[in-house]
Design a protein that fits this description.
Keywords: Nitrogen fixation
Structural class: alpha/beta
Shape: globular
Strand content: 25-35%
InterPro entries: Di-Nase_FeMo-co_biosynth (IPR003731), DiNase_FeMo-co_biosyn_sf (IPR036105), NifX (IPR013480), NifX-like (IPR034169), NifX/NifY_domain (IPR051840)
GO molecular function: metal cluster binding
Oligomer: single chain
Family: Belongs to the NifX/NifY family.
Mean pLDDT: 88
Low-confidence stretches: 130-135
Organism: Paenibacillus sonchi
Amino acid sequence: MKVAFATDDGSRVNAHFGQSPMFAVYNVTKNGGELVELRKLPAVLNQDEAGKIDCRLTAVEDCTLIFIMQIGASAAARVTRRKIMPVKVPFGSPIDEQVKRLVEMLQGKPPMWLAKVLRAEEDTVKGEEGDGTIG
């Protein structure tokens, strides 16, 4: 699964969702995690709150989880509607440590919130591979 981390330096979770200048996107599986890319957001002057959220949603739309230090209520609602789970972590948390913890959770018995996210991701993949019918 793809996982995004709100960051300003590519190595720590140290940004609020709405102000994050970039997202470090990792591919995380039971076997480990690897950096896919750093998605830098364009600096747009005088962008309203909805525009900031839209820009960031577009940047992480293919991700299953997004690790952030903070997220506003309206942004959190919009993120979860896109089937992306926001995960708050302490300011400055090293991304590599968060990836390692996630891999360990996947190798063992994932907590309920992660198991639910993984099931939803599986259902989406199965739906895309099918013939478009339900059931």
